[in-house]
Each structure stands twice: as structure tokens, then as C-alpha cells.
Amino acid sequence: MSAAIEVRGLGKQFRIGVKQRVKNGATIRDLVTDGVAGLLRRGRRTEENDAKNLFWALKDINLSISQGEVVGVIGKNGSGKSTFLKVLSDIVEPTEGRVVIRGRVASLLEVGTGFHNELTGRENIFLNGALLGMTQQEVRRNFDRIVDFSGVGKFLDTPVKRYSSGMYVRLAFAVAAHLDPEVLIVDEVLAVGDFAFQQKCLGRMKEVAQDGRTVLFVSHNMASVEMLCSRCVLLDGGHLMDDGDPYEITRAYRLRMSEMDNHILANLDNVEGAARKVRILSSVCLVDEAGALTSYIPISRAFNVRIGVRIPAGLRNISYVVRIESTFGVRMLTLCSPPNDTELNVPGAHEITCRVNEFPLTMGAYRIGLGVFQGREMIDQVNDALSFIVTEGEVFKEGRAPLAGMCVARSEWGIEGHLIAADSDAIPNSSLLEPTLDAPGEVEVAELEGSSSLCA
Amino acid sequence: MSAQEPTLVAATPKKPARAQSEAGTRVRVIEPGTVSLIHLVKDLWRSRELLFFLTWRDIKVRYKQTALGVLWAILQPVISMVVLSIVFGRLAGIGKTITSHVPYPVFVYSGLLPWTFFASTLGSSSNSVLGNAALINKIRFPRIALPIAASVGEMVDFGLSFLVLIGLMLWYHVPIRAGILFIPFLTLGVCMVALGLGSIFASLTVKYRDFRYIVPFVTQIWMFLTPVIYPINFVVSKKHEWLFNLNPLSGWVGAFRAALLGDPLNWGQLGISVGVSVVVLLAGVYYFRRTERRFAELI
């Protein structure tokens, strides 16, 4: 049987500087300059000049995917993952090489593409379905199932701009979830939505995989790659570095990542990535309670994530997202700046602070990923920007060691109607106390020290 | 690869992906290549539903949330007509002298109708690519669907303005002639020029953003070079008429007037218009196809 996806000698070269110049407003004057420069260059084309401006986002990629395989593509920022997907989705043209795809292809590079705010949910289902390549018939056939999956129900006929971002994402994914192609190309779309929704998405992806479809899946979440994929491919600097068992490759990748220097301050200016539409994020560091830069945060303590940003003029409705993930890429928590905070939109170079008062996660190593959104659209993103370690310490300043678990939380214990906080001054910290009777019928509940030995 | 790499990057015309059938399964080949017209037509046909939805979306969104809604389509030419009638018709005293057989308002509106259609279509199609940046980056479809959807959207406005013209003609007791049946074809003719040029501008605007501002400006000037508000013999001597006729819009506007008002049809002028329009359309589409492969990188 011939391969479902066959990639031979694929390469994609970009000219740097052009996109930046265009974004900064290339004008007709540039058109003339380009024209003149082009004429002049025909005479004396120097290789070094070209080498400076050009870079290979993908080079010499050879890959053969059989029908029914579920292949995960991993790699760090700028490794060429998104470019690879875009070439396979026929959105960006290769510079050299050849790709052959057999079967009906659907690409899911972003959830909610084409959704128009003024249209209702119902209208957007049809529009989005058509954009994703579903025929009208298919959309109509699956309509009820799509609405069920999304849980949008009674809001179907209101304009989508009134939806909460959760509803928006659910509806968008619901349409995508009912795509029925032979080859499915997916780009980290599982990074959106709340936990329940992410589980739903993963579930759907599993179904699709089990149905015998060919899936190409890009993610930096190793857990989902291991769970869904039968094969894994590692990209680095545009080259295909490894191709084989997901378990082995993700372990090796993790190992390599943790061997990298633990930076206290990460400079993000030179980080590449297809998701970096506007380069807003320029640095990130952690600052502890004392105000010092650090990579180590004691458990349950406060810290600030200090994000250096460069905001160009004219952007509004900017919000920031800080994603805290395990080294395995599992999303532990997401922190989001308040919407419509105009202070955070001011153009120029600043440092934005995200303060967490009591960090609840337990000891271990974590990675920080950053995202910048304009409204609902993500305009900048750096995954794995910085790593840090939560160290042992007093939990919530209660004088106790952390107990087993993935995170810590405050608790208050007592008899129904009479709660006492765990760190209340009334109760001394030392040994077992005997209950004392203040008055007939009243019992004072005493703290039981040594509970760690009971539960640990 | 070797030291020949730099030459690969000098953007030679590329072929878009082909999709053929291989024993029933659709096969898509993606590689650098050349442009072909047949492939374009096949691609468009396969994406016809998408084209429909894009057009439908543009039309629906256009009037949602506007207070006057659909009236906006009519207001622009009507107000232009009123203003021009007052300025040229009455004040300058031109009205009576140049258009003896039709009242000036009808004369000017019959020119404004195709002109407004042309100007709006040119404007919308020029912005269609940049305005749909999100789609370009994430979805695969023949990009020419965007200017086409924009043009079709404008036809709805045109239809409404046309109804107003009929009303106007009835008001002024101008007889409605059989020539009116040619209007759809003439409209398509205007559409060809608008689409061809719009495609070129749409592509240029992606790379050089200030083309956005040039288009309205150029359109303004162009209107005065076309016999919209004045008949052709008013400004130009017979000797230089051919120059004027190089402007494809002259022919179309003239033909509109001939069809609607019974003016004598200048076949030479119309012939030139048809020829130039077809060339502009083909050149525009070709240029667009050649450059569309780089859109996702530049937007």
C-alpha cells in the first residue's frame, strides 16, 4: 500500500527581514528600492549577502507515513514544526522537495479560524465547516452532534461576539471534531480551553486515531504525544533528528532539555517560532519574595513572573498568559491577566509583573510558557521560556512540611459550625494536646501535631 | 545541497499543488512549480462552496449592526447624484446644454451606477487579501476566491442601486428600453476590469501596505477621466477621443448609457473596452496566482 503522506527532500527557505519590514509598513518607496536593488543585484550577486538574509526553516526532510499511523512531531521553539505543518497543509510553498498526500486532507492549525464575530453560532458552524473543507451536506448531517459536543445549545442564534471565550473555543473545536478526512493534520490546538474541554478534545483525537485515519500531530505536550501517537518525529533547527518510538524520543528530549542551563533570566528576543506574529515578549525572569532573581521558589511562597515586553503602538485589548507546565509538558496551571487592563497595553518597553501570592504546586521542576493575546487571537507565544524549581519549605508559613500530593492548599479544621484555621495562634505548635473543657458541653478541638507522620 | 541554493530562491513562477485521482483517492502533490490557468479553474470549482460562504459572509456582515442597514448601498450613488446635479446641473448651468434628451440627474446616475460598482469592487477586492489575513495563514483554499467573493458582494449593492435608477427613470418619465436586458452583461464587463485590477492591488498590498491608500486616490482621479458626470464630447475633441477610449470604463459607461437611455452606441469604444477588460482580467489573475504562494509568509 502506498504511503498516506510521503515527504522527499523537503526544504523551505525564508528570507529574513522581509516580513519584518512588511510588518513595519513597507511602502511604495520600498517597491522602488527593491526594484532598483533587484536590477543592480543581477549584475553582482554575492553569496555572502544572500547567506545573511536567508535561512532554512526546513531542510532535507524525508518522511514516509503509512495510512493509519498517528505521528507526533515535537521540537523546541523555532525547530520548524509549524512551518512543516503549513507546508503539508499547502499553505506555504516548499522551496525544494516534494510532498505527496493520498486521501482527503484536513488541517487544523487553529481553532476558530474564520469565525466572524458578527455572525451567530449557527452561521459560524456552516462557515467554519466550509473553511475546514466540509461540504454543506456534511455540516448539516453532523449539525446536531456538533451542537451537542459544544454545549452551546440555546446560544446558537446569538452573535458569537457575545460568547465567553470558553464557549467560543468549544464551538470551534466542535466543528473541527466532526471533520472526516482520511488525513488529519493538527497543530497544538489542545492548548486551549479548560481542563474538562482538553480531556474532551484528547478523547476525540483518540477516537479519530483509532478509526484508522492518518494523523500528524504537533505538540510540545509530551504526555499527549505519548498517549496518542504510535510514532514520534523530532525536529531541530529545521532538520529531522529522530524518528521512532514516542516513549524513547520524548524521554531523550526531556533529558536534553533539562541538561540545558538553568537560566535565571531568559532572553526571548531571538527565539523563533511560527506563533510569533508580533514580537512582544522579550525577556522573562522570576523574582522571589525578597525581590531577587531566582530559579528556586520555596513551596507555597509568593513570587513574581517578570515579563519584559515591547509593545508596538496601536495594539489594544492585549492580555497575557503565563502557562506553568511540568517538565513533561503537562499544563499545571494557567495564569491570565485581567481583560481590558489598559495599563498593560501601553506601547513601549516595559516589564509586566504577574504576581502569584501562594504558589500551590508541590516540589519539582516546572517550565513557564508565555502567550500574548489580542482579544482572542494569539499574537505572540514562547513555549518553554524559562524553567524553575519549587523547593521544600514551610507550607503557608504554618511551620509544617509539605505533605504528599501535587499541590498544597490551605485548610481549616473544626467541628461543624466552629472552624479553626490551621495556623491560628490559639493553638501551640508542639506536641499532642489534651482536650480541655472550658464549660460543660463545650469541647475545644486541639491541633494534632505530627500529622505528617500519620499521612505521609 | 550545493552552492546553487541562492538561485532557487529567486522567486521563479511556482506550480500550485495538483490534486488528481488515483483509483478513487484524491492525491495531492505539493512542490515548487509553475502557474496554470486550467488548474485555477478546477481548484475554484472544487472550492465553490467555500466561495459561496465567503460571499455570503461578506454580504451578511456588511449590514449587520448598521443603523441604516441596506440603505447604505443606495445612499452613496443617490447622494452623489443629488450633489452633482446641483453643482453641475443647476449651478454650472451645464445640465440643459449637454443632455437635452434626458434630465441631468438621470444622465449622471446612469453613469454613476456602473462607476460606483467599479470603484467599490476595486476597493473591496484590493483589501480582500489583507483583510482576511487569518484565513490566509491557516486555511488552504484558492486565494483568488477572496477578491471574487468581494466582487460578488458588491453586485448586491449594485442591484439595489439599479432599482433606484429604475425608480428615478420612472419619476422623470424616461422610457425604459429593451436595452436594459444587456445590463447584466455590461456589469460583468465592468466586473472584469475591477477584478483584474483588484487582484493586482490585493497582491501588492500584501507586500507594500500603503497601496491601501493609493487605491481610493487613484479611483477618485479616474472618475474624472471617465465620462461619468459629463458626456464624452464635452471635454475632448474628436482627435483625442481614442485616448479616452483606452480607458475601459469609458466604453462600459457609454454602453450603459446606450442601453438605458437610448444614446447611440459607440461600437469602437465598446470593442476597445472589451479587449482591454479581458487583458486586464487575465493579467490580474495571472499576477495574483504567481504571487499568492508567498502571502502566508508576508501577512
Q: Which helices and strands appear, and what pairs or packs with what?
A:
The complex is a heterodimer of chains A (456) and B (299).
Chain A: E1 5-15, H1 18-23, H2 28-43, H3 47-53, E2 54-65, E3 70-74, H4 81-88, E4 96-102, E5 105-108, H5 121-132, H6 136-150, H7 165-177, E6 183-187, H8 195-210, E7 214-218, H9 222-228, E8 231-236, E9 239-244, H10 246-259, E10 265-267, E11 281-288, E12 296-298, E13 303-311, E14 318-326, E15 331-336, E16 348-356, E17 364-374, E18 377-391, E19 412-415, E20 418-421, H11 451-455
Parallel strand pairs in A: 3-7, 3-8, 5-6, 6-7, 12-18
Antiparallel strand pairs in A: 1-2, 1-4, 8-9, 10-11, 11-13, 13-16, 14-15, 14-17, 17-18, 19-20
Helix pairs in contact in A: 5-6, 5-7, 6-7
Chain B: H1 5-9, E1 18-22, E2 25-30, H2 37-46, H3 48-63, H4 71-91, H5 94-98, H6 104-131, H7 133-138, H8 145-171, H9 183-207, H10 211-225, H11 232-235, H12 241-246, H13 248-261, H14 267-292, H15 295-298
Antiparallel strand pairs in B: 1-2
Helix pairs in contact in B: 3-8, 4-6, 4-8, 6-8, 6-9, 6-10, 6-13, 9-13, 9-14, 13-14
Can you describe this structure?
The complex is a heterodimer of chains A (456) and B (299). With 456 residues, chain A is an alpha/beta fold. Chain A is built from eleven helices and 20 strands. Among the domains of chain A are: 110-180, Orthogonal Bundle (Helicase, Ruva Protein, domain 3), CATH 1.10.8; 265-391, abc- transporter (atp binding component) like domain (Coagulation Factor XIII, Chain A, domain 1, Distorted Sandwich), CATH 2.70.50; 411-456, no CATH class. Chain A is 26% helix and 31% strand. In chain A, the strands form five sheets. Chain A has a six-stranded mixed sheet, with helices on both faces. Residues 43-48 and 424-456 of chain A have low confidence and may be disordered. In chain B, a hairpin with a 2-residue loop joins strand 1 and strand 2 (25-30). Chain B has helices at 5-9, 37-46, 48-63, 71-91, 94-98, 104-131, 133-138, 145-171, 183-207, 211-225, 232-235, 241-246, 248-261, 267-292, 295-298; strands spanning 18-22, 25-30. Chain B is globular. The chains are: A alpha/beta (456), B mainly alpha (299). Chains A and B meet through strand 1, helix 1, helix 2, helix 4 and strand 4 of A and helix 1, strand 2, helix 3, helix 7 and helix 9 of B. Strand 4 (96-102) of chain A pairs antiparallel with strand 2 of chain B.
